Automatic annotation (TrEMBL):
Its cofactor is NAD(+). InterPro entries: NAD(P)-bd_dom (IPR016040), NAD(P)-bd_dom_sf (IPR036291), UDP_G4E (IPR005886). It is an enzyme of class 5 (isomerase). GO terms for molecular function: UDP-glucose 4-epimerase activity. CDD domains: UDP_G4E_1_SDR_e. It holds the Pfam family GDP_Man_Dehyd. Its EC number is 5.1.3.2. Homodimer. GO terms for biological process: galactose metabolic process. Pathway: Carbohydrate metabolism; galactose metabolism. Residues 5-326 form the NAD(P)-binding domain. This is UDP-glucose 4-epimerase. It catalyses: UDP-alpha-D-glucose = UDP-alpha-D-galactose.
């Protein structure tokens, strides 16, 4: 049974990916520094799969600790790297924290993988690298634009570091997965999104407003050039996203990759506006959401949704979960955690 390292494996997407890896028969070891997650997520994972992954609390900024980890786990066959800081707004205020945490740690990881007999590496990237794409839906060949934030820049730089390393390390192959907007929670309601403080993202703010933690949702602008004036995004259920990681990893483990470095957009291929997401929530929850239209949020792009042809045809993966099902899973999770 291949051993797979999942960094950031107690986080939102990481924990759902650990579940899918275990259910696919892999042995999982998690590295997490618990800066944006909690150790009791392990209980949720164990409840779902009946297996407790190995967990090591490690800060990937500590080079010696990373080295020691790979001496102890030299049988790691693949790495799925989620661990990173990911708040766009915070990255503008604290750029050095983001460059150190998102870039420095990636370099340390890759230096260790270079020494393994062979290594398959899956990188958590983001549609943020495209900025406001000129054409919709967005394909992987769309130009990577100047990042709107240090966070987005760390994803762009991260992809370049991996691509350049794969060119000269014959035993290393990698796939960058460019996520659109991950939402929802595991159908078991044992794991889900646990935003710390005031949620930056739309869906947790909706569910926290509906359950009474937040007074009212502010809709950031309805004067965009879209059918209803609000921004359009591609909201993908986190379990669909997690399954794509297992498929991408297996492509590398089984040497099906056509190049040493590939990228795939992970989305539903369908755009939904903020108002459509709100309507979906009201439909599935039966609750009227308290929201108001306010001014635009700095840095928001008008529209982004994925052309998923590459992932569908090359990975043989496509999303199965609808927006309504995703919103219902988010609502059930909110009720479980706060109810
Ligand atoms: C979605 C839409 C907002 C909150 C970010 C990161 C991206 C990725 C996903 C990491 C926008 C509107 C939001 C609110 C609102 N993260 N909104 N009121 O900005 O598309 O993407 O998260 O990889 O990198 O940039 O997601 O959920 O913040 O916003 O009206 O209280 O909802 O204006 O149109 P975003 P989001």
């Amino acid at each position: 049974m291949d051993k797979i390292l999942v960094t950031g494996g107690l986080g939102f997407i990481g924990s759902h990916t650990v579940v899918e890896l275990q259910e696919a028969g892999y042995e999982v070891v998690i590295i997490d520094d618990l800066s944006n997650s909690s150790e009791n997520v392990l209980d949720g994972i164990t409840t779902i799969t009946g297996k407790t992954p190995i967990f090591e609390k490690i800060d990937l900024k500590e080079k010696d600790t990373v080295e020691a980890f790979f001496k102890k786990h030299s049988d790691v066959k693949g790495v799925i790297h989620f661990a990173a800081s990911k708040a766009v707004g915070e990255s503008v205020q604290k750029p050095l924290l983001y460059y150190e945490n998102n870039i420095g740690t990636l370099v340390y990881l890759l230096k260790e993988l270079k020494n393994l007999p062979e290594a398959s590496f899956i990188f958590s990237s983001s549609c943020t690298v495209y900025g406001q794409a000129d054409e919709l839906p967005i394909t992987e060949s769309a130009p990577v634009k100047k990042a709107e934030s240090p966070y987005g820049n760390t994803k762009q730089i991260g992809e370049e570091i991996i691509r350049d390393t794969c060119k000269v390390v014959p035993t290393l192959k990698a796939i960058a997965l460019r996520y659109f907007n991950p939402i929802g929670a595991h159908p078991s309601t044992e794991i889900g999104e646990l935003p710390i403080g005031v949620p930056q993202n739309l869906v947790p703010f909706i569910t926290q407003t509906a359950i009474g933690i937040r007074e009212q949702l502010s809709v950031f602008g309805d004067d965009y050039p879209t059918p209803d004036g609000t921004c359009i995004r591609d909201y993908i259920h986190v379990v669909d996203l997690a399954k794509a990681h297992v498929v991408a990893l297996e492509r590398l483990l089984k040497n099906k990759n056509k190049a040493t470095y590939e990228t795939f957009n992970l989305g539903t291929g369908k755009g939904s506006s903020v108002l459509e997401v709100i309507n979906s929530f009201e439909r599935v929850s039966g609750k009227k959401l308290n929201y108001k239209i306010v001014g635009r949020r700095e840095g928001d792009i008008t529209a982004a949704y994925a052309d998923t042809t590459n992932a569908n045809q090359v990975l043989g993966w496509k999303t199965q979960i609808s927006l309504d099902e995703a919103m219902l899973s988010a609502w059930k999770w909110e009720q479980k955690v706060r109810g």
